[in-house]
């Protein structure tokens, strides 16, 4: 970081640390013990699509890799596009196997990053539900290397349960690198895996 960066208030961007995703199984145990939220077995990766053969081949390779267990009863991955034009990849594993789900999410992120598509990665999330039916996602911001909780209110309205999000933040501070800037806790309405 140079002298002008300091004067103008610019900071050096945080390098993504995909290994932070491996903290999710521990966070899942803390969530269940402290707030009653259990994993749904669903998680997703969001990225900006790029046109071209190299990206399409990578997408097919990732799909083939994650679909390899479908002959043993696994569920194939699904791709979808949201209203903003971003692509979502939904991965599923048994709810009690968060490590396998995290491995899938890590493989997708790593594949995109290692192939030069890291700048297209936006976030990854893992879904949770409590006995009352409330949903929660732990969202990993690729470009920040941090997590935040996202808790939409039930009923299809685009409102969040801010009190629950703050409670979860406090609960997981020892398990995950939590995003401190609340303005970066972006809503991911209708995200696959939520």
TrEMBL record:
Pfam families: PspAB. InterPro entries: PspAB-like (IPR054383). It comes from the Bacteria. This is Uncharacterized protein. The lineage of its organism: Bacteria, Bacillati, Actinomycetota, Actinomycetes, Kitasatosporales.
């Amino acid at each position: 970081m140079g002298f002008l960066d300091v004067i103008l208030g610019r900071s050096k961007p945080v390098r993504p640390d995909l290994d932070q995703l491996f903290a999710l199984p521990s966070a899942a145990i803390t969530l269940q013990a402290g707030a009653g939220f259990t994993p749904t077995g669903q998680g997703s990766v969001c990225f900006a699509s790029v046109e071209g053969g190299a990206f399409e081949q990578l997408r097919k390779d990732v799909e083939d890799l994650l679909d390899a267990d479908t002959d043993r009863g696994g569920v194939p991955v699904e791709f979808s596009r949201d209203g903003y034009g971003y692509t979502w990849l939904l991965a599923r594993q048994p709810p009690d196997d968060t490590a396998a789900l995290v491995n899938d999410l890590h493989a997708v992120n790593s594949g995109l990053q290692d192939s030069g598509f890291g700048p297209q990665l936006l976030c990854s999330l893992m879904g949770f539900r409590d006995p009352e039916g409330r949903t929660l996602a732990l969202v990993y911001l690729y470009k920040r290397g941090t997590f935040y909780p996202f808790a939409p209110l039930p009923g299809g309205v685009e409102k969040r349960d801010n009190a629950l999000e703050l409670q979860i933040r406090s609960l997981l501070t020892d398990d995950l690198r939590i995003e401190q800037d609340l303005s970066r806790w972006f809503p991911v309405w209708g995200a696959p895996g939520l």
